[in-house]
Amino acid sequence: MYPSVSFSQSFTCRIGTRPACLDYGDTVCSSLGKCVDAAAVCFDRYQCDYQGFTCKSNVTECVDEYDQLLRTHNELVDDYNDLLNDVENLRSDVQDIESCVTWADSVESAKSCF
Question: Which residues are within 8 A (CB) of 9 and not within 5 positions of it... i.e. 6 or more apart?
Answer without folding.
Answer: none
